[in-house]
Amino acid sequence: MHKLPPLPYDYSDLSPYIDEETMRLHHDKHHQAYIDKLNGALEKYPDWAEKAVADLLGDLEAVPAEIKMAVRNHGGGHFNHSFFWEIMRPGRTDNVPEGELLFKLNEVFGDLLSFKEKFTTAALGQFGSGWVWLVQNGQGELAISTTANQDSPLELGQKPIIGCDVWEHAYYLKYQNRRAEYVDNFFAVINWSVADANFKHAKLG
Ligand code: MN
After folding, report:
1. What pLDDT sits at residue 203?
2. From the CA of 170, how far away is ligand 1's center (Å)?
3. Residue 74 known to bind ligand
4. Which residues place a Cβ less than 5 A from the ion ligand 1?
5. What are the pLDDT digits (tens) for 33-77?
6. Alpha-carbon gap, residue 205 to 189, rounded angstroms
7. What residues contact 170, with CB distance under 8 A and at least 6 apart?
8. What element of type H or E holds 81?
9. Is residue 3 part of a domain?
10. Residue 103 C-alpha to ligand 1 middle, in angstroms?
11. GO cellular component annotations, sorted alphabetically (predicted)?
12. With a threshold of 0.85, does the pTM exceed it?
């Protein structure tokens, strides 16, 4: 049985960048719903129910046909949201990358501002519901990527380093249609320490 992981901070801790009501709904209702539906789909497949969700998504072709779409959508929803909670921390105005990742972002994107612009452009260009990511791609390079719905970078052979939920449920209560403002404020709550750890982990392979 998959279980809802607790937030690594309080519901109100990301405020004012992400408000408490959004965090409560997003974590307790939306994320829980993906887990309930994933568990429901796996009920008839006890061997598959024991596997880690990242392993299911990393080899979706192997998943039984009857539950493949449910695992893709709800397993993806479970993985993406679990990742999302961990990649955020209480906000700060001087929130900047650290460690090896800072060096690499400058090398690949020129500077932090250019990275932020490219990430935001990708987020705004994602039509409808989905996610924008900083990943290590299949060629081992740092890249910005988007996925539709609850598709996960793992399905594309990519390793996520940063991920931002751009479904309307992630921002609509506070930002309404202002996705750009939401993404701008997401940069204040990125947990760069976790991002750097994700980067190091991705490099190790
Ligand atoms: Mn979401």
Report:
1. 84
2. 5
3. no
4. 165, 167, 170
5. 999 999 999 999 999 999 999 999 999 999 999 999 999 999 999
6. 27
7. 22, 26, 182
8. helix 76-86
9. no
10. 30
11. cytoplasm
12. yes
Please tell me the distance from the alpha carbon of residue 95 to that of residue 188, in angstroms, as a whole number.
Answer: 6
pLDDT in tens, 123-149: 999 999 999 999 999 899 999 999 999
Tokens coding 95: 């929130």
Buried b (16+ CB within 10 A) or exposed e, 21-33: ebbeebbeebbee
What's the rounded Cα separation, in Å, for the pair 32 and 20?
17
31 assigned to a ligand binding site: no
Residue numbers of the domain that contains 66: 20-86
Tell whether 39 is covered by a domain: yes
Q: How many residues does the chain have?
A: 205
List the structure tokens of 172: 């609509």
* The token pair that represents 117 in the structure block: 């612009």
d(CA 79, CA 151): 10
How far is the CA of 154 from the CAs of 45, 80, 157, in angstroms? 22, 10, 5
Q: What does the alpha-carbon distance between residue 112 and residue 174 come to, in Å, rounded to a whole number?
A: 26
Q: Confidence band (pLDDT; 50, 70, 90) for 194?
A: very high
Tokens in use for 183? 């993404």
CA separation for the pair 189, 202 (Å, rounded): 22
The last residue of a domain, from among 86, 111, 135: 86
* Distance from residue 183's CA to the centre of ligand 1 (Å): 14
State which of 86, 115, 140 marks the end of a domain. 86
